């Protein structure tokens, strides 16, 4: 195990770093850390990290994390002295996360949560590094009593249902992280991430906000799965990234919810997206496909009291930036504007 001595700036390993949340995390970390981004592009995109590739404090390794990862075997990482120092931080985000992704890649999803998580833990243990493992609100299952999910709730989910590869895969990965922590005396964080949105989400991947934005900027009818009066919560990606970094900097270990506690009707979100996109399209309600599930609301008091974290980006501002991003990538006209929500 490497001694934790840092000669220059700390080095962070981000698995799944070309994905939605992972790439935004790399953007922030590279400001004051060396960043090693590992991805196999099974769901991540090279365009998400294009601007980082010219940064001397950023290195990309194309690797399938279900195979063991030996950072010392990559000569391009010599500049970060990983053979002698290892890494100081590990963020494990390598896993398909959208409904269409894990519905299409169930075995790969299970492998990422099992073998992939183990291999990330092995890198952290070898380096004497703390690991922040990205889990999900899906481990709780669907809400049953209308109360926010707290970290001590065990959850209730179907082990063989259409979402089981993701839900049970993440539950197993949490057990793996916790077991490494207790048996190998490793520092660890399990971050249970709730609905997240923002630039770089993929269109048409089964997530409500990017699908709605796509329909709006294409001037096509929006689809709500369920009722327009159904309630959900959405947290902007920069707030989630801020939470992950704060959890890494926290001196202890533990399990934390990260998400927004503010609740909105799905119909109101659809109308706000239309205002921001300056369009008027019909809203259609449909029965949700079996791989979609109702999402619960997080209780985030623990994160607030322990690391001083709260979401800061309003829904209006977050959606404005999201619509702006997708318009720019579709070469469409500038945005309209609305007041705060």
From TrEMBL:
<keyword id="KW-0735">Signal-anchor</keyword>
<dbReference type="InterPro" id="IPR036291">
    <property type="entry name" value="NAD(P)-bd_dom_sf"/>
</dbReference>
<dbReference type="GO" id="GO:0070403">
    <property type="term" value="F:NAD+ binding"/>
</dbReference>
<dbReference type="GO" id="GO:0033320">
    <property type="term" value="P:UDP-D-xylose biosynthetic process"/>
</dbReference>
<keyword id="KW-0472">Membrane</keyword>
<dbReference type="GO" id="GO:0005737">
    <property type="term" value="C:cytoplasm"/>
</dbReference>
<dbReference type="GO" id="GO:0048040">
    <property type="term" value="F:UDP-glucuronate decarboxylase activity"/>
</dbReference>
<dbReference type="Pfam" id="PF01370">
    <property type="entry name" value="Epimerase"/>
</dbReference>
<dbReference type="InterPro" id="IPR001509">
    <property type="entry name" value="Epimerase_deHydtase"/>
</dbReference>
<keyword id="KW-0520">NAD</keyword>
<keyword id="KW-1133">Transmembrane helix</keyword>
<keyword id="KW-0210">Decarboxylase</keyword>
<keyword id="KW-0333">Golgi apparatus</keyword>
<feature type="domain" description="NAD-dependent epimerase/dehydratase">
    <location>
        <begin position="12"/>
        <end position="259"/>
    </location>
</feature>
<dbReference type="GO" id="GO:0042732">
    <property type="term" value="P:D-xylose metabolic process"/>
</dbReference>
<dbReference type="InterPro" id="IPR044516">
    <property type="entry name" value="UXS-like"/>
</dbReference>
<keyword id="KW-0325">Glycoprotein</keyword>
<protein>
    <recommendedName>
        <fullName>NAD-dependent epimerase/dehydratase domain-containing protein</fullName>
    </recommendedName>
</protein>
<keyword id="KW-0456">Lyase</keyword>
<keyword id="KW-0812">Transmembrane</keyword>
């Amino acid at each position: 195990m490497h001694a934790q001595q840092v000669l220059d700036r700390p080095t962070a390993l981000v698995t799944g770093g070309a994905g939605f949340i992972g790439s935004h995390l790399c953007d922030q970390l590279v400001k004051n850390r060396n960043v090693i981004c590992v991805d196999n592009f099974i769901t991540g995109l090279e365009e998400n990290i294009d601007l980082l590739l010219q940064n001397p404090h950023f290195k990309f390794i194309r690797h399938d994390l279900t195979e063991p990862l030996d950072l010392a075997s990559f000569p391009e990482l010599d500049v970060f002295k990983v053979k002698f120092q290892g890494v100081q931080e590990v963020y494990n985000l390598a896993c398909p996360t959208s409904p269409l992704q894990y519905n299409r890649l169930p075995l790969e999803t299970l492998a990422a949560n099992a073998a992939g998580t183990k291999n990330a833990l092995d890198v952290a243990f070898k380096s004497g590094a703390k690991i922040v493992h990205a889990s999900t609100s899906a481990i709780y299952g669907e809400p049953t009593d209308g109360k926010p999910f707290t970290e001590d709730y065990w959850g209730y989910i179907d082990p063989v249902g259409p979402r089981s590869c993701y839900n049970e895969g993440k539950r197993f990965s949490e057990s793996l992280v916790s077991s490494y922590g207790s048996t190998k005396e490793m520092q660890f964080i399990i971050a249970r991430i709730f609905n997240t949105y923002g630039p770089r989400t993929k269109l048409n991947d089964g997530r409500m906000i990017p699908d709605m934005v796509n329909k709006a900027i294409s001037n096509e009818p929006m689809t709500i799965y369920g009722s327009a009066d159904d309630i959900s919560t959405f947290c902007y990606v920069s707030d989630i990234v801020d939470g992950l970094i704060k959890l890494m900097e926290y001196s202890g270990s533990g399990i934390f919810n990260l998400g927004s506690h503010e609740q909105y009707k799905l119909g109101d979100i659809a109308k706000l997206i239309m205002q921001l996109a300056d369009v008027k399209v019909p809203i259609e309600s449909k029965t949700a496909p079996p791989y979609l599930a109702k999402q619960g609301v997080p209780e985030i008091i623990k994160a607030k009291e322990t690391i001083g974290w709260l979401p800061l980006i309003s829904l209006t501002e977050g959606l404005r930036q999201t619509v702006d991003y997708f318009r720019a990538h579709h070469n469409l006209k500038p945005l309209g504007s609305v007041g705060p929500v």
